[in-house]
Model the fold of this input.
Amino acid sequence: MEASMPKRKESAKSLRIKVISMGNAEVGKSCIIKRYCEKRFVSKYLATIGIDYGVTKVQVRDREIKVNIFDMAGHPFFYEVRNEFYKDTQGVILVYDVGQKDSFDALDAWLAEMKQDLGPHGNMENIVFVVCANKAKVGVFSLNFVFQIDCTKHRCVDESEGRLWAESKGFLYFETSAQTGEGINEMFQTFYLSIVDLCENGGKRPVTNSSASFTKEQADTIRRIRNSKDSWDMLGVKPGASRDEVNKAYRKLAVLLHPDKCVAPGSEDAFKAVVNARTALLKSIK
Ligand code: GTP
Ligand code: MG
Done:
């Protein structure tokens, strides 16, 4: 009787979780998992066929976690296979390639696919999502030298854009490189910790500081400013608007995005762009 006591206590602390990977083909999902579990990188592309399944054990605080990882194929061809596997998931690793804009633009479609497969009763709110901006050129600094630089092609989704998308949805965000290993351990540790917090929080996703620190209006405005085609568009006024109209629009945006008030990723650049747009327009208006 006495001998069985610690065992029971131990099992109460152990946890079994299900994690899936999602994202377009070739963004690096399998390599991220391989880098973490096997500490190696494979440069040759070996497309996942349907699903790869693996089990790993991790220690988080005083808990032993048995992680069932379902690594999904990103190619649309495997949709029928994937849709069996969305159910009963506690954590999602959502990956895009920072050098492939379409893989970033596809993230919403991945969420939509999962939502559709979970059906009307599925709850995406209680799943921990971590967004990996993969193939990122993250470097380690030492004695004024930078080494371990990912050699991927030109980056076209910058950090603030990815972070804004992730954090405005309450998701975790990490810059990763499966090639160099940068960001991978940190990402998994935070991810597993959040899943444990979720389980200990009665299955509800814990609120992260960042998700509560800026509003949807601020996030949408930064995105609109990024995509604006000229200074008029940026300030949200019609071409040929008066000085008063320009100043009024500027003041509204300045209140929303001023660096003292707004901590959303990209707000500083957006604020500077608005200041420049106003200056340019006031110069051009007689
Ligand atoms: P599917 O299984 O088809 O959905 O693709 P995947 O997302 O699992 O991609 P995979 O991990 O197989 O990697 C695709 C290609 O990108 C391979 O050639 C990898 O070597 C390469 N790759 C993965 N991660 C990185 C990275 O961080 N940096 C660089 N430079 N290449 C990477
Ligand atoms: Mg794969």
